[in-house]
Design goal:
By secondary structure, the chain is mainly alpha-helical. The protein is built from 17 helices and two strands.
Amino acid sequence: MTQHLYRTLIAEDMQAVDQVIRASLHSDVVLIRQMAEYIIGAGGKRMRPALVLLAGRACGCQSEHLHRLAAMIEFIHTSTLLHDDVVDESGMRRGRQTANALFGNAASVLVGDFLYTRAFQMMVQSGSMQVLEVMAEATNIIAEGEVLQLLNIGETDVSEDAYLTVIRYKTAKLFEAAARVGALISDAGAAHADALAAFGMHLGTAFQIIDDVLDYSGDAETIGKSLGDDLAEGKPTLPLIYTMRQGGADAAALVRRAIENADRALFPEVLAAVQSCGALDYARSEAEKAADAAITAIAVLPDSDAKRALVDLAHQAVDRQA
């Protein structure tokens, strides 16, 4: 299934989700409306709400709550972006100024809290205790992942396993929760819910690895941020971990110095080292393995257009350029 067909499959659903998002952004506080409209209006891939929709459709969902829960997942994601940009002191996202750059750090944190708590109101409206349990666990683990990543800033002895733990907590957990929520609201059995949750976890892992690859191989205009941002923040991502392990003594020393000092000025040299030792190819291969694991996880689901779209989504997570 091509990307065009995948988007066509849930086009009407996504329009309904956007309507829920707009309606749920209402607040009597003008600044909340302005900021929420700004960050949501920036668009983005909407992969997480799409995952809720496709998981639900793959399980034959007829629930009126599916669109609301897809919007809820996007609100959780957006709130984490607002907080991340403050922590990372980011100035650009999706080719535009970040909310914190435009409105200030304090407003970004507080509006992020508004979106987060609004998301929990939307969960309650679903009437599903299982959904609440899944999201309570997921948001707690995401917070742990954020702290783990913070502890790793400037660290050069982070193992590949430790890196994977961070991205499974920080990124993949919300993908996992999105897929499981789509199954739960469809009254799917435990086997299908577990299969979709595993799909989401592997998909999110692949997605984040490719994000880290694009920081060294993407086009700044296409990905909507400056190349080398991870290096400038002192983040030991997979391309750098591999280079320190396999790139030779000089390359390892260079990368260690760049991470420890969060030095963007060393980006051209680090980029050359990353490329010459095959780190980007290795990271892409690991992302492909994760995508394959995601596809394998949903083999138990009955054949459907939604299942084929999920397979396509796994391929897109690896093949994308932004």
